[in-house]
Amino acid sequence: MPELLARYRNPETPAARAIMDVAIDARRLGHPPAIPHALLEHAAPGYLDDHQWDQAGDDWLERALAFTGNPCHGVPGPLTRIRPRPTELATAGGPHYRLADALEQTGHTERAAVFPPDSFWTAAATITNPEVLDQLGIQALSRGRYQHAATLFQHAADRGHRSALRELGRLRERAGDHAGAEALAMRSADLGYTAPTLDRAEVRKAAGDHAAAEGLYRDAANRGDPAALSGLAALRGRAGDTAGAEALAIQAADLGHPIGLLWVAMQREEAGDRMGAEALARQAAEYEFLVPLGVLAHLRERHGDYATAEALAVQGVERDDPEALGLMARLRDRAGDHSGAEALALEASNRGDPNAVTEFARYLRNDLGERSRAEAFVERAVDRGDLFALGDLADIRVEVGDYAGAEALAMRAAVLGDTAVLVILAARRAEAGDHSGAEALYQRAVEHGDTMALRELAQMRNDLNDHAGAAELFLQAVNCGETSALNDLARLRDQTGDHLDADRIRRFGLTSDGKPAISLDVNPPTAETSDRMCGSGEAREG
């Protein structure tokens, strides 16, 4: 709706734009469609600079809502009040408002790399719905704002949301507050929720403290968690207790958690006991758990035992495992049935294996060196409607040096959501010294929603010693929810010698404006106090 967008871009007052941005941010971060009046009222001031706020007037909100609620040529305004039905109870928090779909879609794209100000998160923390609190906490977490995430998870947990308690424990653990994380795990366990205990077991196992890990697994198992039995099975298997590991894995499978059988089967495979591994995989299949059969079949193929691989794949096909069809395709091809093999690969794609065409094409190119046949196969897949195979076709064009053709295909694939080849082409341009061409391709990928491309572009800037430009792009990626870019920011600080801030980023994340946080507390201690804590090795702030 052009008129709606025009009113968004040219509002009557800055406050009108502010409440629309609050609503956009709320929706793109997972708030339900009904936006409460209180959220608009308390968040919007943080979207205005000092001059705008001074000029807003006491009736700023009423004027803003009147502007956004005014219809446009008979179409509802950008942000309109939801009229409750007579049979509905009065909603908590006063009136609620709905953002126009067109504005929501535009704002979702245009504000993707914008992190809302503190006022938004302070207002969000007053929401009483634990599901909404948890969802907003997850969004803050994915954007590296651990302080806001911790606050929201705490409020959600206080209202009975168990997984929020788990996320809060993980934040405490990351921050170095091991006692706080343990207390939260115990609180969860007392409520019958043992997932945080398993998290702590995994942390102890990763640190090499297997005795502590086993104790935590046993505590969770004694409270009835079958996943803990699987974890114990893996530990016992690593310790050489194969009989004990198998017994625990079977016990877990009987309780509905058969993945432990896969772990023990893989340990048997690594130890050279192929018959034992296969027996456990077959046992797992009896629990309708197909993964072990597929994993073992792929391993047998890799080791050249094609007969056993095919036998296992046949069992997978009989149990409607689409990935088994992809494996069968390669095995048929090795046996000389090329047309039958290609038909199986296409059927696997049709039946839900998203990687079937790609894996078969790579098998033809990389294992057999048959590039022309791979190209013909992928073209056939595209002709049959598998448009995601465009990326594979573009990859083949790159191999033969047809970069123009590859870019054209990559753009077609990007429109459908597959930007991988654009990123590959950008990297090749960068390697050839064409950094401006590489940046253009990275930006195209970003325009199609590939936030990983922002990381790649940032790394290219860093390689060119543009550390400030790299930091800005890494921060954009974090703001878009590309969590791994937070580690890139920390690594960049280490690279430039700022080890203190690198440690802060890893432990506490970022403030709303993108600076390293010094605590999980939104009202943290002074930087001087935090520096002493970081340097002394004392119990760290959580």
From TrEMBL:
Annotated region (Disordered), positions in chain: 521-542
Superkingdom of this protein's organism: Bacteria
InterPro entries on file: TPR-like_helical_dom_sf
Name by which UniProt lists this protein: Tetratricopeptide repeat-containing protein
Source species of the chain: Virgisporangium aurantiacum
Native organism taxonomy: Bacteria, Bacillati, Actinomycetota, Actinomycetes, Micromonosporales
